[in-house]
Design brief:
- The termini are far apart.
- The protein has 5 helices and 9 strands; from the N terminus they run αβββαβαβαβββαβ.
- It has helices at residues 6-23, 68-84, 107-117, 131-135, 172-181, and strands at residues 39-41, 46-47, 57-62, 91-95, 122-125, 139-140, 142-147, 152-156, 196-197.
- Strands 2-1-5-4-3-7-8 form a 7-stranded mixed sheet, covered by helices on one side.
- It has a single domain, classed as Glutaredoxin, CATH 3.40.30.
- It is of the alpha+beta class.
- It is globular.
- 34% of the residues are buried.
Length: 201
């Protein structure tokens, strides 16, 4: 009769716990369906994903006003919207930060920046900080590409070079959105987001 090595048993139990915990994650992972949300935009209107009747997917970007990384990516986020919104995959930007910690990320400041920068996409305020934890966003910017059924297909960075757009070699979100629109799985479907940490209450 064969005996199990105690180390093998421990490793097996550990693997089981990892698998169970991943299935019951406190935030979305690739392959899970995202709940809709209702958040106020910079014009005072409540916006949901359901409002986009003909959407074939979404590029959800958690970003903000003050973060240098978010500022570096502003034009690239706008370019993503201009490219993919006509194809049915709009950008929806969400500010998750607590303005009591960073006053530059207040709703009033959001309104001013959106107007000054002429954002072509919706810029929403997660005022109660209820939406970003569901997505598992930890940085600004942090991107989630969803398909038409709101299934998360990609999580992570916009590209591989925040500081120098001209030196970008891998356009993660562009590639992921293109794959989703083609009915394909993005590869990679996960990268490490680079940016400022989200400021919690």
């Amino acid at each position: 009769m064969k005996r199990f090595c105690p180390l093998s048993v421990i490793l097996l139990m550990g693997l089981t716990l990892v698998l169970v915990s991943s299935r019951h994650s406190q935030h979305y992972i690739v392959g899970e369906k995202a709940e809709d949300f209702s958040l106020k935009d910079t014009e005072g209107k409540m916006v949901t994903m359901a409002d986009y009747k003909d959407a074939k997917g979404f590029i959800i970007v958690f970003t903000c006003n003050h973060c240098p990384y978010a500022q570096l990516y502003e034009k690239r986020i706008a370019d993503l919207h201009r490219k993919f919104a006509p194809l049915g995959m709009p950008v929806i930007a969400i500010n998750p930060n607590d303005p009591d910690i960073v006053p530059d990320d207040s709703y009033t400041a959001m309104q001013k920046r959106a107007k000054d920068k002429k954002y072509p996409y919706a810029y929403l305020f997660d005022e109660k900080q209820l939406v970003y934890p569901k997505f598992g966003a930890t940085r600004t910017p942090h991107v989630f590409v969803l398909d038409k059924d709101r299934i998360v297909r990609y999580i992570g960075a916009i590209d591989d070079n925040p500081e120098t757009p001209e030196a970008v070699k891998k356009r993660y979100v562009d590639d992921a959105a293109t794959a989703v629109l083609r009915g394909q799985k993005p590869a990679p479907d996960f990268t490490r987001a680079v940016g400022c940490t989200i400021k919690k209450k």
